[in-house]
Amino acid sequence: MAGTSGWLFQGKRNGTHLTDIQNVHCNVLKEARLAFVVYDFRHTAATRWAERGMDIATLAKVLGHANLRSVMRYIHISQEHMDMAILRFGEPQTAPADGRELDELTAINRAAKVDSVQ
């Protein structure tokens, strides 16, 4: 949570913020006997946002990337997340509002895919 100055990492002087956390980061890692780089936080944040449904275009904007391939390098979706996504798409669907049966819509969608491949 951001402090009263609006910065997440406030500086020692009132109204300032940290601009370099490398020294603090290294000291904490040494004390905790851990090893990772500050940039790992970007990968973790991008992955968590993607897993919570943030679309790729928004992720690109938030991360400051113009190229979607660059964004994809940051996202590391877990097997558990993929398994849950597959299960969600396997759940029974409700009937469409226009009265058509799901089987009819499935047939239409399949025909459209076949036509686009040919």
Q: What's a quick, concise take on this entry?
A:
This protein is mainly α and 118 residues long.
Describe this structure in words.
The protein is mainly α and 118 residues long. The chain has helices at 22-32, 40-51, 56-63, 68-74, 79-89, 102-117. The protein has one domain. The protein has 6 helices and no strands. The chain is elongated, with a radius of gyration of 23 Å. Mean pLDDT is 76; it is low at 114-118.
- Which strand-content bin applies to the residues? under 5%
**Major sheet, described briefly?**
none
Point out poorly predicted stretches: 114-118
Structural class: mainly alpha
Shape: elongated
Helix content: 55-70%
Q: Structurally, how many domains make up the residues?
A: 1
Annotation, overall tally of beta strands: 0
The termini sit apart by 54 Å
Radius of gyration in whole Å, from Cα? 23 Å
List the secondary-structure elements in sequence, H or E: HHHHHH
What do the pLDDT scores average to? Answer: 76
Q: Helix count?
A: 6
